[in-house]
Design a protein that fits this description.
single chain, about 350 residues, alpha/beta, Rossmann fold, seven-stranded mixed sheet, 13 helices, 11 strands, disordered N terminus
Length: about 350
């Protein structure tokens, strides 16, 4: 998507936030409760997801934001049941009232594609380079619907038309390498939508595309979501994308949700210093040319040896001994829906009167 100034971002967030506040509460389609995922590798445990919880209703969109290694992709693969054998998952993932954690691979296959589907980051690695586009889409259709080859082929053409691929019938005969990056991603969306899922997860689906194509893909996803009242999870490191396209935002760090709110509330009142650091790193048009972008100093935590206190404390200018001694729970001190995990949130003076960089 195109980069925005802070004013543009606030305007977009305000519009979406108003929709969130004015919308009638709907029953949750997806409920994730205290989800933990760790991997056992070389006699070590990698604590990838550490107690994330959220709800998502049909027709709503949620952005899960964070740096690489924050746990956002693993948490979504846990929803899909697409984790490797070394993964150990606890907690609850309920999709339309059905508990998915603990189901066998055969049982999960009933829900993949029809209940929940996923668009991955790199279509070049997801599409079979030796198969034509049409048969790959038709294969996804026939995996779940009782259609013969001809019916599946006709539905494949319809799906490609639905994601705005021109001359869809002719494109069915092309191989993936004959399509542009944006077209390949549209094919992946067509495959994901083949059986009209209730929930679509887009995992960094626009990262490898130019900004114009990114915007086109995101507008397409939102249009398709509106047509089918589908729930949508956007996984990204880009807070600008969340501001423009999501109803709610979860910011993850070290496998935990560290801030969670409606889009409008989060961008109007950032509380977690990590979220603030991510916002400051977004390029802005009102900065002079050749300005060095702010960066979050330090490295993400080692997920095999998570610290006792706040995982962001070693990189945080507001951290003190309390932060290093104990990790705060994700909570809403004011009783609202804006939750954050920080002893010294951004709307309070820095501890000990220490100086903070702008």
């Amino acid at each position: 998507m195109a980069l925005r100034t802070n004013q543009d971002t606030s305007r977009a967030a305000g519009t979406l936030g108003s929709c969130v506040e004015n919308a009638t509460d709907r029953e949750a389609l997806l409920t994730v409760s205290d989800l933990h995922v760790h991997f056992v590798q070389h006699r070590q445990r990698v604590y990838a997801v550490n107690g994330i919880s959220y709800e998502l209703a049909a027709g709503r969109s949620l952005a899960i934001i964070g740096e690489s290694g924050s746990g956002k992709t693993v948490s979504c693969r846990a929803v899909m049941g697409l984790l490797p054998p070394t993964a150990r998952t606890t907690g609850s993932v309920r999709l339309d009232g059905v508990e998915l954690v603990g189901l066998s691979e055969k049982q999960l296959c009933r829900y993949r594609g029809t209940g929940v589907s996923m668009v991955f980051q790199d279509p070049s690695r997801s599409l079979n380079p030796t198969m034509r586009i049409g048969p790959q889409v038709a294969e996804a259709v026939r995996a779940h619907l009782p259609l013969d080859r001809r019916e599946a082929r006709n539905r494949a053409v319809h799906l490609l038309e639905r994601v705005r691929i021109p001359a869809a019938a002719r494109r069915c005969l092309d191989y993936p390498h004959q399509l542009s990056g944006g077209m390949r991603q549209r094919v992946m969306i067509a495959i994901a939508l083949a059986c009209d899922p209730k929930l679509l997860i887009a995992d960094e689906a626009t990262t490898s595309l130019d900004v114009t194509t990114q915007a086109q893909i995101m507008e397409l996803l939102l249009e398709l979501q509106e047509q089918s009242d589908m729930a949508l999870i956007l996984v990204s490191h880009d807070l600008g994308l969340a501001a423009s396209y999501a109803d709610e935002v979860i910011v993850m760090y070290g496998g935990r949700a560290v801030e969670q709110a409606s889009t409008r509330e989060l961008f109007a009142h950032v509380q977690m210093p990590y979220t603030q650091a991510l916002l400051q790193a977004i390029p802005r048009f009102d900065r002079p040319t050749h300005t060095i972008l702010p960066v979050v100093e330090g490295r993400p935590p080692d997920l095999t040896h998570l610290p006792t206190g706040c995982a962001f404390a070693p990189r945080c200018e507001r951290a003190d001994d309390r932060c290093r001694a104990s990790a705060p729970e994700l909570a809403a001190p004011g009783g609202g829906r804006h939750r954050f995990a920080c002893w010294h949130p951004c709307d309070e003076p820095a501890p000990d009167g220490r100086h903070e960089s702008s």
